[in-house]
Write the structure tokens for this entry.
Amino acid sequence: MRASTENWSGRIALMVAHCAGMVDLVALPVWVGALIAEYKFDPQRAGGLATLFLVGAVISSLVFAPRFNRINSRVAAVAGFGVAALAFFAAAFVTDYAILAALHVLAGMSAACALSFTHGTISHSANPHRLFAIVNIALGVFAIIFLGATPNLIAAFGGRALFATFTAIMMIAAIAAAISFPTVTAKVGKDSAVGVGHLRPAVWCGIAGVSCMALTQAMMFSFVERIGMDNGFGREAVTGVLIALGFVNLFPAPLAALLEKRLSPNAVLLAGPVCQAVIALAITFSGGFFAYAVSTVLLPAVMIFTHTFAFGLLSKLDPTARALAGTPAMLMIGAAIGPILGGTLVQSFGYHSLGIAAVVIAAAAFTLFSRVHAPQATMPNTPDRAGAV
């Protein structure tokens, strides 16, 4: 049977590809923490390496997203993950900052190329909201395994274990894509290849809003491990929180799928930045372990739940799939700024500044999402009020 978005052969390949391409969403606290603890980089330089990976991802996604309907998706996914694996493999054997920086850029560009074609393929499925929820469930399982195993590997074998782990993840994704990456038929004709400048304003506002939430997510998530350690909670307790985070994040994606027809996408988009800001304030200002733990495990859940609704809504606003092929760019253009912005704020003003910055960014995301209007068919039970905020 030919792999497609509507059978499990194709879906499993997309699940693996999504996990590999979105590894930063899961790995940032361990990633930045290892660069600080094992490589002895200061917070700004450690955050800068993660930012370079994400900058490379943004550039790549901006290049490939408008060309989604012109390039073979399977070839792009296999090549992208394969090159990313080679870049991370090389990173495991160097400690020079400049070389690590170049390898982070290359790995980001390669992985995001593959991820752009993964998300564009998901957008062409029969139900993009549901399939995006499915691949995010896989991301939750992946988070449990990664966050449970990787800190122990780093403790046992040093910083190079982080890059060895990334190498294995990217290679597995390349193999899965080679075996059963789905082929899709474009929903539209020649117009699918036109430039992204023709996207409607509501789509651009949605893209910018998701980028703002990704900025807050990356800024906070990069330092939750350090916040816990510097508050004196201990490595065992902080690692336990990260493992619990993985289990909790199994639920937002299936919950988003179940509530697809019951919640207004607009309402979810407006609530997401507000919840994110409240959680960020709790992490940075509480000082107590319980508040820190609960807030930390919920932080990615808000992003996953909100983004699933945003993905489904944008797939209706842009049937060409060009906007959603650019999902790595919309996520990572914000996420790219997050680690280095967070590192600069922490180094200059302390952890409290992260919470204050999160409130400011949330206000911008809320304003942008207020300008994204759902098509009438997507508004549950209120056909005469489609697009109302």
In short: The chain has one domain: 8-385. The chain has 16 helices and no strands.
